[in-house]
Design brief:
Elements: E1 2-6, H1 10-23, E2 28-33, H2 36-45, E3 51-54, E4 57-58, E5 61-62, H3 64-69, E6 76-80, H4 86-89, E7 94-99, H5 104-115, H6 123-130, E8 141-146, E9 149-154, E10 158-164, E11 167-172, E12 177-180, H7 184-187, E13 196-198, E14 203-206, E15 213-215, E16 221-223, E17 234-235, H8 240-247
Parallel strand pairs: 1-2, 1-3, 3-6, 6-7
Antiparallel strand pairs: 4-5, 8-9, 10-11, 10-14, 11-12, 13-14, 15-16, 16-17
Length: 249
Amino acid sequence: MNVLILEDESRAASYLERLLLKTAPEMKVMARIESVRDAVPYLSAHSDISLIFSDVQLADGLSFEIFGQVAVNCPIIFTTAYDHYAIEAFKTNGIDYLLKPVEEERLKQAIEKAKQFSPVLALEKLLSISKQTEGKAYKSRFMVKVGDKIKSIPMEEILAFYSLDKATYIHTLSNRDYVIDYSIDQLEPILDPEACFRINRKYIVSIRACTSILAWTNSRLRLKIDGIQDDDIIVARERVQDFKEWLDR
């Protein structure tokens, strides 16, 4: 079974590929593509893809844009940190909707669906999957190691989460930075979306951090956070509108 992975986070793509090797070794990953721009010509030229794993938000837009430009006859399993794209997913050949971080058992179930793929899509089933996150408890604190001691950092003290040199950090109100055992992708579904927003691939910011916002190039926004000297605290262009709406809640 030839598989295509559409994912703009290299860590998430590698994790999924390793999980596939473990749960479905008969599957062969033919390519990993990060953007809508590159996916369209690839799918147009390769009719041998049997299954697609697709994140919803790619480097240059939503993956739904791909399936509006090129006919895809194989099943699609969406892997994303967001649960509100479920209905849109069913307008394509979406057969399942896996929330990140992808769990091994859920992946196995999705693969079984792929093997029994039919163009007749069950909307009710996908909607029930999207409702699995309703009413769930979000992360309220993070355990960090300070020397040989363990410390608990409550969410109220955290200004931002960011990735740097293959590690993920939290930045606190007291201008301290601590390493945590999560990737940025893994953090998204466990953080309260009312309190935190992912502005780009590297940063998730707290509402408390959004006190200094500047207009930036290409219709983007730039944030200044005390204690972080980084020019990349920029709201990605495709997320600016959602970010403004989040601020205005």
